[in-house]
Design a protein that fits this description.
heterodimer, A: 919 residues, alpha+beta, six-stranded antiparallel β-sheet, 42 helices, extended, disordered N terminus, B: 153 residues, five-stranded antiparallel β-sheet, two-stranded antiparallel sheet, 5 helices, 51% helix, globular, golgi apparatus (chain B), protein transport (chain B), transport (chain B), membrane (chain B), Longin-like_dom_sf (chain B)
């Protein structure tokens, strides 16, 4: 009797589930699988579980190998075997029985048999060959698609009257195609028949094959376009809708095929422009599935031969992704940006602030994708910051795969921009890096690459960039980097013909006078000077340096200084000792120093002290050394962080602080033989203190005459001075940091958005106020004001560049209109964008609250609020309106912005989003 | 798609389907590491993972995690919807599905998956058609059993 109950049970599997139905628990425990599962859940330890399963497997083994086991029992046993395998226990004895079951049982037994076979075996398993000769392929059975090809059999099924079988047969052929494309070559026309099948399911299945081999089927483009058109306009049966979107899987598959077809092919691409446009338009519902289609569409548009207005729409789409509050969409937005950014770097520029935020995102995946994006926009100017960010990420990364990937990317950058990357690595890694890294870098420079031309270019570039670097702030550069710089300048300065060695000498002198410079670095510098020292000016510099150092406590320095002095006076000897551009010849080093043996024994005989190995001497000298090293060690970590800020500037900006050279010149005047006395003396010439020192009286007199205004840059179209000036409001600290980061990351991406240049001449101690009116030509998220400040000190003039960022909100004014006027304008404006934003939900009326926040933060005018809808208007300082239509939709604020000004809706939307983010 | 895994919040594997040939050892290693990685992620984080050289898309439904590994060029969002469609199918078949349904009837869960995905590709996207195919098989099974039972009695 219980047997009958059991049969009924397996026949009605839905009863088996442990719903709250009374008695269901008892019932299911009677099935053997149920008993097994129950048994396992009651166990407490892994060990017990193992024992139980081993017992179970033993009884299974008996059961399946017994000749008396019926097919039905076999089927049941197979299910239990699958379960044991899933728990991680091997049941290999059942494999052969699974195959037998699949071949011999009734339709239903076969079904379980095939399931077991597909789960147990993979296509490399030896048993798979035995599956070859199944005689009766029956409907459900085309299941096992990766079994060995039996093409004629499957081919036959392509004509089966039932669509489900035709579909499976097509998919089976698809799998065959993946495994052995040549074996199915003769039936390509069958695929075409499948594509034209009256059942959309069969047609969909055939697309998998076409996606793989589409390149040879350009002639089908029009057919695919027609199919997509029909799908998009909802011609398929409702069954295929997914969340009221017509056949999304089919759409995506078609879009992929189209993108392959249209790649680098203008005429083919032209056929599909219309349908792509249509797809973009139709995908309006706010659901994941529409975003999936949009994403594929955008990818397709950027892959095929470009068309301007489609690209614009696609770019807008990407913007919506990037700005979305949903993290999955944000991720895809970043991915899409990564995909398109090589073609259109400006797009990254538009979203720079979002990208910066993503760089600090708590989710590692987002962070990594952002780095990937940055990697794609690396250029000679932003490379420093990007490599820095990558190294930063590397430090935190624990996952091996990520680490390998990122290291590979850094290396790739290093290949493209060897010098910049190494410079970054030096200035960041600082004195932490292994000493062999600078050595091998210098080796690379001196041995060079294959082509002499390349070598020269690289060396020249090195000289140029290091000169620039030395002209700037050198205080924070790590010692090892300074050593590299000295060597390169010493070795290769002569390559730059127009470079006066005296200029390089002066720069190097500056290094010598720096308190932070270690004595090791100083010897490198002196060596470089020795190589450079030619011409009268240089010799006189060398002489003064030598005078300073002749009383140095450091013997090595004294030695080098002495050498420098001698060699600077004896040109012939110098060129013999340090020939220009010597090709590195392998030097033979006798490490045992045997050639000195005679000398040593002679000296010993004459009563000299025996040789002490370095470590012994070091111990004796320890005290002295520790004293002189201390201050350097201390000052480094403090300065490191600020070094990142100055270090990340592009080489072109480096010259900004060139005013410092005057400063240091002064320093050397006053100090006389400065280097010694500076130890332990409080520094008067700190970076900030330096300006306050500049108060010579005669300059104040000059300051009474206000300097004439230079005309504002023509870009602005500004109309002279007016009351419209905005006092610069300092942005909060972290924000400023981000913007600074942004400007350094996105430099060189073809920015058109920096707006105007203010030029002013200001004299020391005199505050001059200049007023300019700025007006917006093209709205962007932030405007950059750049200027040049020049001033005079000790009859030298200096120039300092500065930049200042103004958010778009500074230019936004409330726009008072009536609802009727609003309505009329709304229809007339063509540039629009839509987005869902956060709602303010603390109060009673969230719409009013939210709009008030926007009004307060962005200076908007609320025209009217009716129920769940609100209309808001604003304008730019000039007469350029932007209208916002807001309504509450599914817990978010759906805003729709329209304006006659291109880009205004998008830029304003960014600020709306920011304004509501914190709430 | 390369494989699909279903596992519980405790990290117990509930269903596995591999569409690429891998040795048992590799499968076990991948499963163990991936389950750990996914369980360690916080609820508000992104549903996509770049994991080793794979792209993993996962979603949690009640106590069960559904996890798919797809090719790098695949569309993540549509994979997410594949998971969702599968859950819908299970839900419709079992009638508000719970983890226990899948534990005790995992072969059914496999049958449904096989009607929906074949060889790693979506074969039938119409919910109605998938369920129809499964129901037909079930009906067949039932009538088959009945005749057998009659014979044995």
């Amino acid at each position: 009797m219980s047997d009958v109950v059991e049969k009924t049970l397996t026949a009605l599997p839905s009863l088996l589930s442990l719903d709250s139905q009374p008695g269901s628990a008892k019932l299911s425990s009677t099935s053997k699988l149920g008993a097994l599962i129950r048994g396992i859940t009651e166990l407490t330890s892994k060990h017990e579980e193992e024992k139980l399963i081993q017992r179970e497997l033993a009884s299974l083994k008996d059961q399946v190998s017994s000749p008396n086991t019926s097919m039905r029992q076999m089927k049941e046993a197979m299910v239990r075997a699958i379960y044991c395998e899933m728990l991680g226990y091997e049941a290999s004895f059942s494999y052969i029985h699974a195959i037998k079951l699949a071949q011999q049982g009734s339709i239903l037994d076969k079904r379980v048999g095939y399931l077991a076979v597909t789960l147990f075996l993979n296509e490399n398993h030896e048993f798979v060959l035995t599956c070859y000769d199944y005689k009766h392929i029956i409907p459900i059975i085309i299941y096992c698609v990766y079994d060995t090809c039996n093409t004629p059999l499957v081919e036959e099924k392509l004509n089966h009257p039932k669509e489900i079988i035709r579909r499976k047969a097509v998919l089976a052929l698809y799998k065959f195609y993946l495994i052995a494309p040549n074996q199915v070559q003769h039936i390509h026309n069958r695929f075409r028949k499948a594509l034209c099948d009256k059942d959309p399911g069969v047609m969909f299945a055939s697309l998998h094959i076409y996606l793989q081999m589409i390149k040879g089927y350009k002639d089908l483009t029009a057919s695919f376009v027609t199919i997509l058109k029909q799908v998009v306009s909802g011609k398929l049966p409702m069954d295929f809708n997914y969340h009221s979107v017509p056949a999304p899987w089919l759409q995506i598959q078609l879009l992929r095929i189209l993108s392959i077809l249209g790649k680098n092919d203008q005429s083919t691409s032209e056929i599909m422009y219309d349908v792509l446009d249509e797809s973009l338009k139709r995908a309006e519902i706010n659901h994941n599935i529409t975003y999936a289609i949009l994403y594929e569409c955008v990818k397709c548009i950027y892959t095929i031969y470009p068309k301007t207005d489609l690209l614009e729409k696609a770019a807008k789409c990407i913007g919506n992704f990037v700005l979305s509050s949903k993290i999955n969409l944000k991720y895809l937005g970043l991915k899409a940006l990564t995909y398109v950014v090589q073609q259109d770097p400006k797009l990254a520029l538009q979203h720079q602030m979002t990208i910066i935020e993503c760089l600090d995102h708590p989710d590692v995946i987002i962070k990594r994708e952002t780095l990937e994006l940055l990697f794609r926009i690396t250029n000679a100017q932003n490379i420093t910051v990007i490599v820095e960010k990558m190294l930063e990420f590397l430090h935190q990364s624990k996952d091996d795969h990520t680490t390998i990937d990122l290291v590979g990317k850094v290396a790739e950058i290093a290949e493209k921009y060897p010098l910049q990357t190494m410079n970054t690595v030096f200035s960041l890694g600082g004195d932490m890096i292994q000493p062999d890294i600078p050595n091998s870098f210098l080796k690379l420079l001196s041995e060079g690459f294959e082509s002499e031309e390349e070598n020269k270019k690289l060396r020249l570039f090195a000289v140029d960039s290091y000169i620039l670097l030395l002209e700037g702030e050198t205080r924070n550069l790590p010692q090892r980097f300074l050593q590299v710089i000295s060597w390169v300048l010493g070795e290769y300065s002569h390559l730059r013909n127009d470079l006066d060695p005296a200029r390089v000498m002066t720069l190097l002198t500056k290094l010598l006078e720096m308190r932070q410079t270690s004595s090791e670095t100083k010897t490198w510098v002196l060596m470089a000077m020795t190589k450079l020292c030619s011409g009268e000016a240089s010799v006189s510099i060398a002489r003064s340096v030598c005078e300073d150092l002749s009383s140095s406590m450091d013997t090595v320095q004294r030695q080098r200084a002495h050498e420098l002095l001698l060699l600077s006076q004896d040109r012939a000897l110098r060129s013999q000792l340090l020939p220009l551009c010597s090709d590195p010849e392998p030097l033979e080093v006798d490490s045992s120093l045997s050639f000195l043996d005679a000398f040593v024994s002679e000296a010993l005989a004459a009563g000299a002290a025996p040789y002490k190995p370095p470590h012994q001497r070091q111990e004796e000298l320890a005290q002295q050394k520790a004293l002189s090293l201390e201050p350097y060690e201390l000052s480094l970590p403090i300065n490191m962080s600020s070094s990142c800020v100055t270090g990340r500037q592009s080489p072109t900006l480096m010259s900004v602080s060139s005013g410092l050279s005057g400063d240091s010149a002064e320093l050397s005047h006053k100090g006389g033989s400065t280097t010694l006395k500076l130890e332990g003396v409080k520094r008067v010439w700190g970076r900030e203190g330096y300006l306050s020192k500049k108060e010579p009286v005669e300059e104040v007199a000059q300051a009474e005459i206000p300097s004439p205004l230079s005309s504002p840059n023509q870009h602005t179209g500004a109309s002279g001075t007016s009351s419209n000036t905005h006092p610069p409001i300092p942005t909060p600290e972290p924000e400023q940091e981000k913007q600074q980061l942004a400007s350094s990351l996105f430099v060189g991406l073809g920015s058109q958005s920096s707006l105007c240049l203010v030029r002013a001449d200001i004299y020391a101690l005199h505050v001059a106020v200049f007023q300019y009116s700025l007006s917006v030509i093209r709205p962007v998220v932030h405007f950059e004001v750049m200027g040049m400040l020049s001033y005079q000190s000790s009859h030298k003039s200096h120039e300092v560049e500065f930049t200042y960022k103004l958010p778009l909100t500074n230019f936004i004014r409330p726009f008072t209109v009536s609802t009727e006027q609003y309505g009329a304008m709304w229809l007339a404006f063509s540039n629009d964008t839509k987005q869902n934003l956060n709602l303010v939900t603390d109060g009673q009326d969230s719409l009013t609250d939210t709009l008030n926040v926007l009004k307060g933060k962005l200076n908007l005018h609320i025209v009217e609020i009716i129920g769940m809808e609100g209309i808001v208007a604003c304008r730019l300082a000039q007469d350029q309106p932007c209208l916002l239509h807001c309504h509450i939709h599914a817990g978010t604020l759906a805003v729709w912005l329209r304006s006659p000004v291109p880009d205004l809706p998008d830029s304003l939307l960014y600020h709306c989003q920011r304004a509501l983010e914190g709430t | 798609m390369q494989f699909m895994l279903l596992f519980s919040r405790q990290g117990k594997l509930r269903l596995q389907k591999w569409y690429v040939p891998l040795s048992d050892k590799e499968k076990k290693k991948i499963t163990r590491e991936l389950v750990q990685t996914v369980l360690a992620r916080k609820p508000k984080m992104c549903s996509f993972l770049e994991w080793r050289d794979l792209k993993v898309v996962y979603k949690r439904y009640a106590s069960l995690y559904f996890c798919c590994a797809v090719e790098v060029q695949d569309n993540e969002l549509i994979t997410l919807e594949i998971i969702h469609r599968y859950v819908e199918l299970l839900d419709k078949y079992f009638g508000s599905v719970c983890e226990l349904d899948i534990i005790f009837n995992f072969e059914k869960a496999y049958f449904i998956l096989d009607e929906f995905l074949l060889g790693g590709e979506a074969q039938e996207t119409s919910k109605k058609n998938v369920l129809k195919a499964i129901e037909q098989a079930d009906l067949l099974q039932e009538s088959h059993k009945k005749t057998k039972d009659v014979v044995s009695i």
